[in-house]
Amino acid sequence: MKKTALVILAAGIGSRYGGGIKQMTPIGPGGEIMMDYAVYDALEAGFNKVVFIIRKDLDRDFRELIGDRISAVTETAYAYQEIDDLPEGFSVPEGRTKPWGTGQALLAAADVIEEPFVVINADDYYGKSGFRALHSLLVGEEEKADGRHALSMAAFRLGNTLSDHGGVTRGILETADDGSLLGITETKNIIRTESGAGISTDDGVKPVSVECGVSMNMWGMHPAFLRELKDGFPEFLRSGGDPMKKEYLLPEIIDRMLKEGKVSVKALPTDDVWFGMTYREDLPQVQAEIAELVRKGVYRSPLFPKV
């Protein structure tokens, strides 16, 4: 069986969640956290390795909470995103306290990723179909197509990815008729409205279709793409923007590389309903959603044997 990995971005601070470590909040009836369900669905789809990208200060607690449990059922590896993990010649601006975004996080795992992989957020529930579709594509495609890095992604329906408790940021997709990705527009403060959805701005709410495709940071990639991330990081650090807030973000990186002709991306539509914990008020709804899936037999509880 071809080796494929699930890479989980779990180093986020979770500021909008109220400062807590939302990735470690129990949501399942057996004390499961969000990552348990992603790992379970990925293993079911055929992935056979899990890479956790975390903060070093969380290492011991993380392993006790989930890592040791997962290492008992599949191969695992760890990488650590640190704010001062920068290319030679660069230093952390005085006063900056947060790492440099999802692109830097993925770079932190470059030494432990040797196989095709899917990268996801730690605090999102993605459903099953995206994992199945991405795995099927990854095991059958080559690293490059027409000289470009071959990427893939799960394209969610916007209406299936909104929070009832505030605005969310989504990468709105522009796709060709054959499903090829043409561009991503990172869009902030998308809210649920009486008529569907809208983008909240200082000038009011601009309607947006709930049927449009969006990125939930669920990407299929090959290891060679990590070299592109590494090469682009110094340029990002030298570029403009607020040095306290700027981030090296995967959707923005991939959008730029699309325009430069360096990558091709297949957007694989999924009708699964996303849910996550953007806000602390999301927690009861997430717990109720998981309990219903357990009741229907979609998941067992506990998901994995305790260690």
Detail the topology: elements first, then pairings.
Layout: E1 5-9, H1 34-45, E2 49-54, H2 59-71, E3 75-80, H3 102-108, E4 117-121, E5 124-125, H4 129-138, E6 144-145, E7 148-157, E8 168-175, E9 181-193, E10 196-201, E11 204-207, E12 213-221, H5 225-238, H6 250-259, E13 263-270, E14 275-276, H7 283-295
Parallel strand pairs: 1-2, 1-4, 2-3, 7-13
Antiparallel strand pairs: 4-12, 5-14, 6-7, 7-12, 8-9, 8-12, 9-10, 10-11
What characteristics describe this protein?
307 residues; alpha/beta; Spore Coat Polysaccharide Biosynthesis Protein SpsA, Chain A; twelve-stranded mixed sheet; two-stranded antiparallel sheet; 14 strands; globular
Structure overview:
The chain has 307 residues and is of the alpha/beta class. It has one domain (5-295): Spore Coat Polysaccharide Biosynthesis Protein SpsA, Chain A. It is 26% helix and 28% strand. It contains seven helices and 14 strands. The protein has helices spanning 34-45, 59-71, 102-108, 129-138, 225-238, 250-259, 283-295; strands at residues 5-9, 49-54, 75-80, 117-121, 124-125, 144-145, 148-157, 168-175, 181-193, 196-201, 204-207, 213-221, 263-270, 275-276. The strands form two sheets. Strands 1, 2, 3, 4, 6, 7, 8, 9, 10, 11, 12 and 13 form a twelve-stranded mixed beta sheet that branches. Strand 10 (196-201) and strand 11 (204-207) form a beta hairpin. Helix 1 (34-45) packs across helix 4 and helix 3 packs across helix 5 (225-238). The chain starts with a strand and ends in a 12-residue tail after the last helix.
